[in-house]
Structure formats: C-alpha cells, structure tokens
Amino acid sequence: MTKPVRGFTLVEMIVVLAIIIIITTIALLGQSSFNRSMVLTDTAYTIAFSVREAQALGISSRAFAGTQDAGYGVHFANQSPSSYKLFADTYPAAPGDTQYPAICPGHPNVPATNPEAKPGDCIQTLESEVVRTYSLNNGFRISGFCGRQSNGVPLCNGAIDALNIVYLRPNTQSVITGVNGNIRTALQDATIRISSPDGTTERCIYVSKVGQVSVVQEGEAECPTQ
Question: In sequence order, which residues have a C-beta less than 8 Å from that of residue 164 and are 6 or more positions away?
C-alpha cells in the first residue's frame, strides 16, 4: 500500500516565511547601515580635500576677482548645516598694517605697500569672496564644529557661530578663527563633525594649526563630544 505524500502544513509555511522575512530584513538593514557609513566617510574625506584645496590655493597665491596674493579658506556656519564655502580672503582689499595683529595673526605686520602685505581679514566676510559653495546631499549635515584656544579650553556650538580655516602664502600652517557675532577668537585646531540623516553615525575632520588634516572616527581623541 502506497503511503500518502505529506506536504507542509499552513503553520510550517508561515514559520518558514517569517524566518525568511527576518533574515532578509536583517541583511537589508545591515547593507543600508554599511552603505550609509561608507557615504558618510566619503563625505568627510570630501570636506578634508576641500581644506587641502584651500591650502594649495593659498600657498600658490592664486588671483581672485582681480585681487592678488589673497589667502584661501573654508567657512562653516551654524545657520548652514548642509553646506560650506571655499572662499578667497580678499576683503578688505588694502587694510592698514595696524590691523594685522588684531584681526588676522597670519598676516605680516608690514605697510600695505610692502610686497608681503596681503588683503583680507582671515574670515569670509562678503559673499563676493565665495569661490564655491559645497552642498551635502542625502540628508547628511554638519552637526557641529569645535576649536581649542591657546589655553586648551574648547569653543564649540553656541560659543561660536562660524568657523574659518585660512591659508596664506608662504605658510603651510592654517589660521583658524572662531566667530561669535563681532567677536573673533584665534584657535589652535578645529574639528568639524558630520552626521548621517538619522544622527546615529558620525565622522570628524580634524585640522591642526600646523597643517594636519585628517578624518577621525567618533570617540577618538581629536573628536570632542561637546
């Protein structure tokens, strides 16, 4: 006598389908998290390369809008978390020599007629100085920036509204300035934090006064949590 062929019961099919759905969901979420992390890292490196671009332009003293010997820098602002600017430091065009120590320590203290005299004030002051505006896509944003003063005390969001990193010929070193309204503070380094759309993943770009530019992971020494 032939035994009847036994098939799957409805309960067994539901269990198998549930397992397949769970495994697929885990795989998709893992892939999504991996892709998000990769894109976030790529975004951080893009910003780091923008800082290097400013350094190269500043050292080469590339003319901008008819102004020679200008410094170049990057500008980050709290009010624009999804973008940042590459700018030429051309304003004011011919500052007096007494202004240099106070507003831009990277400028030599020489008369405006001296070949070493440079325009600018080491921050992005006017829109006419903007060379290029970079936009962050896919919901990524600049979640904050910090910098340490000469005494080691950090200034972060709330204490500064904008951050400027400028390079001037012939120095490879950076002039880092935090701005809060009309108050400018010279900083020894800067950290720019980049966040994923859901805020669960971060990368940091660290820039030192001596010219170091690097991408660091969240929680490392150069990535402050303030």
Answer: 73, 74, 75, 76, 122, 123, 124, 175, 176, 177, 178, 179
- What is the secondary structure of 175-199 as a DSSP string? EEEEEETTEEEEESEEEEEEE-TTS
| Total of domains in the chain | 1
- Reported as a single tens digit per residue, the pLDDT across 135-178 is 998 889 999 999 999 898 999 888 999 999 999 887 778 999 99
Query: Does residue 89 form part of some domain?
Result: yes
Neighbours of 185 (CB within 10 A): 15
* Model confidence pTM above 0.85: no
Q: What would the pLDDT profile of 79-138 be if each residue is shown by its tens digit? A: 999 999 999 998 887 655 445 455 676 666 666 677 777 788 889 989 999 999 999 988
2 inside domain = no
Q: How far apart are CA 147 and CA 25, in angstroms?
A: 41
| Domain, as residue range, for 104 | 10-217
The token duo for 95 is: 């500052």
Q: Which two tokens stand for residue 143?
A: 């979640």
Rounded Cα–Cα distance for residues 86 and 165 (Å):
10
A 10 A CB-CB count for 226 gives 11
